[in-house]
Design a protein that fits this description.
By secondary structure, the chain is of the alpha/beta class. Helix content is 44%, strand content 17%. α5 packs across α6.
Length: 385
């Protein structure tokens, strides 16, 4: 029997950019949606008019409209579908415990017949651990009493006409398909078994990073004079390099032993993380070439980040860049393009543009006042000014 949208209750666990994107798209279709703020442990009743008024979660948080609230457990116990899309900010060995803690919180009040859609990357075999945890927490059997789906989402997959949905025995769910359907791009859900979904996502992430790591390592180890090479990689910024780093680490953590696949993952991680040192070395070279002293130099890191995205790898990478720069140049600041201002200073300013958007907007905003040295955080570390 097909349910009326208004009779289907959904909860999205996670006041994240991705979580709000899912919740708002479902709400405007007429489904009842609760958006759970995992930090406050409260659920927001997301009405269609609110979803239409606020284009993203940042605008919703900033405006703080009066919304109906209810406890997390009430929202979860009333939902037929739970989308798991929390913000993960732990790093290193603490990541897994953070995810486990939030998955436990999101599922402990599940009722029989509920479906859980897990949207974080799980690596290879990670979904088996998730399902075992849910069974332990709820006392119910996954595949019989409750249902589980795997849909790892990221920015580059949002506008894809095909969404990969992993499920037990490739089980399809017409309600999920209706909730996630976008009439603008006419997307569809391709239901496959969970293991295949894990493999496909891992292949996509590794394909992205093995190419990226190769470009970075080659550019680091040769003196690039060819204009063709420079043009080819000019628009590949640190922001692009960081996309999916969380996924890559999750894949590495899910692998056992020291086989070729682990070498591939570790090499990609090492190459990506090593880019920060390379970028700082290029700044040192620039200072030497221009006969500038570190004590008379100010560095502005221009990298506009989304503070509400699920993955925290870009935020972590920005902190690492800032910390390592301060070891060499004490005067370092973060300054996204939206507040970027050039003011008189006795120090020479070097601006590091970490994304194509930041570069374009800073140049446009300051084209009449190019009183700084711009360095693109790309594989060839181009400088302007």
């Amino acid at each position: 029997m097909t349910r009326n949208p208004s009779q289907t209750t959904t909860a999205v666990y996670g006041l994240s950019t991705e979580g709000y994107r899912i919740a708002s798209s479902i709400a405007v279709k007429g489904f009842k949606v609760s958006l759970i703020d995992e930090a406050a442990r409260m659920a927001i009743s997301l009405k269609p008019d609110i979803a239409r008024t606020y284009p993203d979660v940042s605008s919703l948080i900033e405006d703080e409209p009066l919304l109906a609230l209810e406890p997390v457990d009430v929202a979860v116990s009333e939902a037929s579908y739970i989308f798991f899309a929390p913000k993960i900010r732990k790093v290193g060995q603490e990541v897994k415990s953070d995810v486990v803690s939030k998955l436990r919180d999101a599922t402990k009040a599940l009722r029989k017949g509920t479906s859980v859609i897990y949207t974080l990357p799980a690596g290879i075999g990670g979904n088996n651990e998730n399902m075992a945890l849910i069974e332990h927490v709820t006392g119910m059997a996954v595949g019989e009493d409750i249902f589980y789906y795997y849909m790892p989402i990221s920015d580059d997959l949002v506008s894809s006409p095909e969404i990969i949905m992993g499920s037990l025995k490739s089980k399809q769910d017409s309600e999920i398909s209706k909730m996630l359907y976008d009439p603008d791009i006419k997307n569809r859900l391709n239901y496959i078994d969970i293991i295949s979904a894990e493999f496909l996502h891992s292949i996509r992430v590794l394909g992205h990073y093995t190419r990226m790591a190769s470009v970075i390592e080659i550019c680091k180890n040769i003196n690039i004079k060819s204009e063709t090479i420079r043009r080819t990689f000019s628009d590949l910024y640190l922001d692009d390099i960081a996309n999916g780093l969380y996924d890559l680490r999750v894949i590495g953590a899910s692998l056992g032993g020291a086989g070729p696949l682990m070498y591939l993952v570790n090499g990609s991680i090492k190459g990506t993380e090593g880019y920060i040192k390379y970028l700082i070395d290029k700044i040192r070279d620039e200072l030497k070439t221009r006969d500038l002293k570190a004590s008379r130099t100010k560095v502005s890191i221009a990298w506009t980040l989304d503070p509400n995205e699920m993955r925290g790898d870009k935020i972590e990478l920005l902190s690492s860049l800032e910390s390592k720069l301060k070891d060499y140049i004490g005067d370092v600041e973060r300054q996204p393009w939206s507040v970027f201002d050039i003011y008189p200073s006795e120090k020479t300013r070097i601006v590091i543009a970490c994304s194509k958007l930041d570069f374009a907007r800073i140049i446009a905003k300051n084209k009449q006042n190019p009183d700084f040295i711009m360095m693109k955080a790309n594989p060839v570390c181009e400088t302007i000014g």
